[in-house]
Amino acid sequence: MKTKLMGIVAAVSLAWCVAAPVQAKGDKVVLRLGFELSLESSQGVGGKEMARVADELSKGRIEIQLFPDSQLGNGPKMVDMVKDGSLDMYEGGTGLFSKWEPRLNVFDIPYLFSSVDQAYKVLDSKFGNEILATLEPHGFKGLSFWENGIRSVTNNVRPITKPDDLVGLKMRVMPSNPVHVTLWKQLGTEPTPMPFSEIYPSLQSGKVDGQEHPVAAIYGGKFYEVQKYLSLTKHMYGPLIQIMNLPKFKSLSAKDQKIILKASHAGAVAQRKYSNDNEAKFLVEMKDKGMQINEVDIAPFRDKARPAIEKEFVEKNGDVWLKKINASLAKK
Known about the structure:
The chain is α/β, with parallel strands linked by helices. Helix content is 46%, strand content 20%. The protein has helices spanning 2-19, 42-57, 75-84, 116-123, 126-133, 178-186, 199-205, 215-220, 246-251, 254-288, 298-317, 320-330, and strands at 29-34, 62-67, 89-93, 140-155, 170-173, 190-193, 210-214, 229-245, 292-295.
């Protein structure tokens, strides 16, 4: 009986060790970070800063290797890789995670924020940390909020000055996010979900007429080479969530976990600063390269786009998150 009991204890101990490996003190830690844009993009700037800070704080012991330009696959593929542990980290739009946490579709409500500062006020708050924590039951550690920025429309058919100008356009939309399909159908377009890596050739070939992204991503993706018009609809703020494989994160020492969180936050700050500081320059450069850029009155777009999407969100997910966001924005 005693021998049998000892065998059970040994088996349980072995299983625990396999499930929760312990990092030896002083071990070298190598982590792979994948993303869809180039090293010269805002995501690349953030990734390089994250790697630098992790290296500095760990005195060279933590190395973050960067894999830009969808080298490891498109966004949905890299999310799955992080989930199964074949990739350590990735940052992607909140919609990519909405199949696990549907309340993340709150960020798909058009004109939820009127500025990036409003978005930062919510995302960098205690509530923002609560949002990140909702991913843990699904095998992800939410490290921090990075950003896409405020999205606007490009296309090859005509300038978009009023909502009716969108009618009939073949529009690329974010994959793995049915809310975006609903939104762009509501606006009269023919939505075509596809990953970021397929946008440029699809615009070039005419498979789709247009797409929507923040200015920094439009510039970083060189869409000005294959698009005639950029209309500053500013219809949605797009946060990114930087995730890490949760078992991998938990296998690190408490000290190294703090370093990764600090480095991730530093990367987010650098990325945001790069996007915000350079947006005006990007617009001038794209205009110089032949892109026609037009301001729009956003009120008609907001009136047509927001009510239906907000109503659908509340019906499916309740209004708790929306109320928390509005309460945060109301604070002085």
